[in-house]
Write a structure and sequence with these properties.
By secondary structure, the chain is α/β, with parallel strands linked by helices. It is built from ten helices and 14 strands.
């Protein structure tokens, strides 16, 4: 079993993958999907020990790829997008070299060489130089290299890229046969290929895991209505009315497709197969069905919708964070303004208070001065009065 737990990796501060967690179980082929730059190659490179992670762990059969890389890599076979083969060697020479590198026991090396050559269908070219092989056979050599040592985990990055249709079918069949004894995870931009050979789908978008489910359950992650496209001959109005009478038919659009022939796009709201009901309804109106096919749940359509929803959610979260940041900045700016305002008016109040105190002091001095003058004047008046009284007394005494 393979466990990927909380895996994260950044390049120069830019996150490539963010907190990825998933498990891979034996007997299944996993399709790793994502747009360019989504983090697929980074994930694969960390899983195979070619890159270190910033955080998180990957364990294969109980061995941590970061803490115990040698033991872990004994359980991993890896085919990069471009097979790292020595083209000046023959197929046999190269595979012998790989067998020695992987430290297969000496007594088992001959058997291992025969096993991987037979398994990948390389018998007819085993003595040819690799540089003289077609691209399809070079891919087979790369897969044979990955199979050396019978590892538990086989990692395939774009295994059919650049192959012709016949070679693609051969490689697909080879990959499909591997799940009997191995866990297989492959990355591919050819979604029809993934839908044909993968049991489980893992979708990464913007470095985050957004889907990890069985291929048959992927439709649960989309909100598309299923659509039947029917090409039929007969009266258009009768065909439309009979189609609309069928249970679970939501909408019918008719387009001319030839003489007395129309293409009907029928939207339905169920996972049930209602083609038999539609066939009966049309035949009852003498409308002959020439072709009927279901669309809307193709892997391409579901992948596009799922990643679109993820992008929209990411955009919405980003906008919310930006608004929060703007709001915080505005609050900080207001707080600074308020602080400055308080500081300014505080100084002003101090100044006013100071002036008021000075004014009060001046008034007090003035009052004191006035009191002093008044007191002095009163004193002079009293003295003059005393003198006058004294003079009057003297005059009285003289008269006596």
């Amino acid at each position: 079993m393979v466990k990927v737990e909380h895996l994260s990796k950044s390049y120069n501060g830019n996150p490539a993958i963010k907190d990825l967690t998933f498990n891979l179980r034996p007997g299944k082929i996993y399709g790793l999907l994502g747009k360019n730059g989504a983090g697929k190659s980074t994930t694969m490179n960390i899983m195979t020990g070619y890159l270190s992670a910033d955080s998180g762990s990957v364990s294969v059969d109980g061995f941590d790829i970061l803490k115990d890389p040698i033991r872990a890599k004994e359980h991993i076979g890896y085919l990069p997008e471009i097979p790292p083969v020595y083209t000046d060697m023959t197929v046999t020479e190269y595979l012998k070299f790989v067998i020695e590198l992987k430290k297969v026991e000496k007594q088992k090396r001959k058997f291992e060489l025969e096993r991987v050559i037979k398994l990948t269908g390389l018998e007819s070219v085993s003595n040819k130089l690799i540089k003289n092989l077609s691209k399809g056979y070079r891919q087979r050599v790369g897969i044979a290299e990955a199979l050396v040592g019978d590892p538990e985990l086989i990692v395939l990055d774009e295994p059919t890229v650049g192959l012709d249709p016949e070679q693609i079918i051969e490689i697909r069949n080879l990959i499909a046969s591997l799940k009997e004894k191995h866990i297989v995870i492959l990355s591919s931009h050819i979604l029809s290929e993934v839908s044909e050979i993968c049991d489980n789908i893992i979708i990464i978008n913007d470095g985050k895991l957004i889907v990890n489910t069985e291929a048959s359950l992927l439709s649960n992650y989309v909100h598309q209505a299923k659509t039947l496209v029917i090409t039929a001959q007969g009266d258009r109005n009768k065909a439309v009315s009979s189609l609309k009478s069928v249970k679970h038919v939501v909408n019918v659009i008719a387009d001319e497709a030839g003489e007395d022939t129309y293409k009907y796009t029928v939207t339905i709201d169920t996972d049930k197969d209602i083609r038999a009901d539609i066939s009966k309804a049309l035949s009852s109106k003498d409308v002959v069905i020439l072709e009927m096919k279901q669309t809307g749940n193709e892997l391409e359509d579901m992948f596009l919708e799922i990643t679109k929803e993820s992008d929209e959610e990411e955009k919405r979260l980003k906008e919310e964070l930006e608004k929060e940041a703007e709001s915080e900045e505005a609050d900080e700016a207001d707080a600074k303004k308020e602080k400055k305002k308080k500081k300014f008016f505080g100084k002003k109040d101090d100044s006013v208070e100071e002036k008021s105190e000075k004014s009060e002091a001046a008034d007090t001095e003035e009052t004191t001065s006035d009191d002093t003058v008044t007191s002095s004047e009163d004193s002079d008046t009293e003295e003059a009065s005393l003198e006058e009284n004294n003079e009057n007394k003297d005059d009285e005494e003289a008269d006596s």
